[in-house]
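Researcher: Sequence recovery benchmark, item below. Answer with residues only.
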């Protein structure tokens, strides 16, 4: 049965618990702001750098492109000039951080002209090329032991 003394005791205990939680959270807030500032500093590891990534709209190339963009790099990605690849590039643009510098160059990287277009595109759009990731490739899974 609830009595006034029991209610006061429970209320005081609950108050003390809430106060302890509040003090703990309150002491963490300055450290949280420090961590956010550290993350913002880390996010600029590649600021001012320009990267080109072949096969940059799917798989590992896409992950590299997004990582570089999140760290402040200007990124040129290469992809095939077909509908699925163009759709992947559009979704990459949508997923990229706001104000990212992302440029696309279509073409088959097996052709010399495409390689030249990637380098020229990076220079023309971003002014430099500091990082080049040769990622594009096609896998054909076959038995190799017969």
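Model:
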């Amino acid at each position: 049965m609830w009595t006034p003394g029991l209610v006061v005791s429970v209320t005081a205990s609950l108050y003390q618990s809430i106060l302890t939680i509040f003090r703990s959270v309150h002491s963490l807030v300055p450290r949280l702001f420090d961590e956010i500032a550290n993350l913002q500093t880390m996010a600029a590891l590649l600021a001012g750098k320009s990267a080109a990534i072949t096969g940059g709209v799917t798989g590992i190339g896409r992950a590299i492109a997004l990582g570089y963009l999140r760290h402040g790099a200007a990124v040129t990605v290469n992809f095939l000039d077909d509908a699925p690849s163009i759709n992947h590039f559009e979704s990459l643009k949508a997923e990229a951080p706001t104000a990212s510098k992302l440029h696309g160059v279509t073409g088959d990287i097996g052709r010399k002209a495409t390689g030249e277009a990637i380098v020229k595109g990076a220079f023309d759009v971003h002014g430099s090329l500091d990082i080049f990731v040769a990622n594009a490739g096609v896998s054909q899974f076959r038995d190799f032991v017969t």
